[in-house]
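Structure request: Response regulator, Brevundimonas olei.
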Amino acid sequence: MSLLARLAPHLPYVRRYARALTGDQATGDNYVRVALEALAAGERQLPTDMTPRVALYHVFHAIWSATGAQLEDGAAVEGDDAAHRLMRISPRSRQAFLLTALEGFTPSEAAQILAVDPRTVERLIAEAQSDIDAELATDVLIIEDEAIISADIESLVKELGHRVTGTATTHDEAVDAVSRHKPGLVLADIQLADGSSGIDAVKDILKRFDVPVIFITAFPERLLTGERPEPTFLITKPFQPETVKAAISQALFFHPSRQKQAA
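Returned structure:
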C-alpha cells in the first residue's frame, strides 16, 4: 500500500488539529504539507511501532517543533491576535490538551506523539485547561430543550469557570434571552421544544451579535450539508464531557471578537 493510501483517511483530522493548534487553517495546512513532503522525500519516516494515525501526528509534531515560526507569514502573524494569544499558553500543554480532548487520542497515544510519558501528558492537559479557562471566562447562553442535557451542559460550563446567564428551549426564548443579556458564547441544539429550529435561532442571534457558537446535536447531517458555510464547532450527541470542554475553549480562544477584547 502506498504512503498516500495509508495516510489519506487521517489527513482531514490532522488538518483539523493543525488548524486548532495554530489558529488558522492556511497556516495549519502549511505545516501538514511540509510534513507530507518530508515523508515523501524520505527525510522523515513513519515510526513502525505506532499506528498510522499516531505516526502521522508524531511526524507532524516533529516538523512543527523543528520549524517553529519559520513557516509563518510575518505580516499575518504580526496582526493576528490568535497567534499572540497562543503564545500565552505553553505550547506543550496546548498540544496535549488538543490531542486528547479534540482528536480523541488516549494519554498513552498522545505521549507517543509528543515523545513524553503519559503522566506528563496528564499534567500538561491540566495546566492547559486551567490557563484557558482562567483567561476566557464569559457569559453563556444554552439553547436546549431536554432538561437533563441542559443541566449537564450547564454543569460543564460552570466547571470551566463560565457563567450561565440564560437557558432557552425554543427559538423565541433564545432571541428573548439575548435581548436581555448579551452572551459571550452560545451552545445550541438544532431541534427545539416547539418544533422550532436552533439553526434559525442562531442565525437571528448572529445578526445582532458577533458571538462564537457551538452546536450540540443528534442531527449533525442538518448542518454538514456542504451547501453553505458549515459550523466550525459541531458536537454530536451523545457527547463526551471533555469534548464539550475542549470545544468551548477553542471557540472562545480563536473567535475574532474575543481576540480583540484580549489584545
